[in-house]
Amino acid sequence: MGSGGRALGSGAADGGSRTSSWDVYAAQEVVARAERALKLLMLSDLQDRFWAPELIPVDAPDTTPGAFDVARALADARKNRPEIAELTAQVSQQDVALTLARDG
């Protein structure tokens, strides 16, 4: 849960998108599994009084958003599309085959 009892990912930052919500829930599940694994390593008895409380980290993760150049990312994505490279190679092969067929 985030601050104020709201579930993580329920704010305006993710726009309420379904993908972000599922990502948050998946991350929360990973955290819960890691917490259980750590408790299994630390506690010999599942009835131990320390089993029930949630483990709370003493330091917070760095959540400072990094700089992101959308225009450059899109240009890189267009430039590095594997299907475009594959089609370009196919066209080049066909050009060679056509040239060889003409020149015989």
Structure notes:
With 104 residues, the protein is mainly α. It folds into two domains: 1-62, no CATH class; 67-104. The protein has three helices and no strands. It starts with 17 loop residues before the first helix and ends with a helix.
How would you summarize this macromolecular structure in one to three sentences?
This protein has 104 residues and is mainly alpha-helical.
Distance between the termini: 72 Å
Number of E-type strands = 0
Which spans have pLDDT < 50 for at least 5 consecutive residues? 1-14
Whole-number count of domains: 2
Helical percentage = 40-55%
**What composes the largest sheet?**
none
Tally of DSSP helical segments:
3
- % residues in beta strands: under 5%
Rg measurement, Å: 26 Å
The coarse overall form would be elongated
Task: Provide the residue-averaged pLDDT.
Answer: 80
**What structural class do helix, strand and pairing data support?**
mainly alpha
* H-E string: HHH
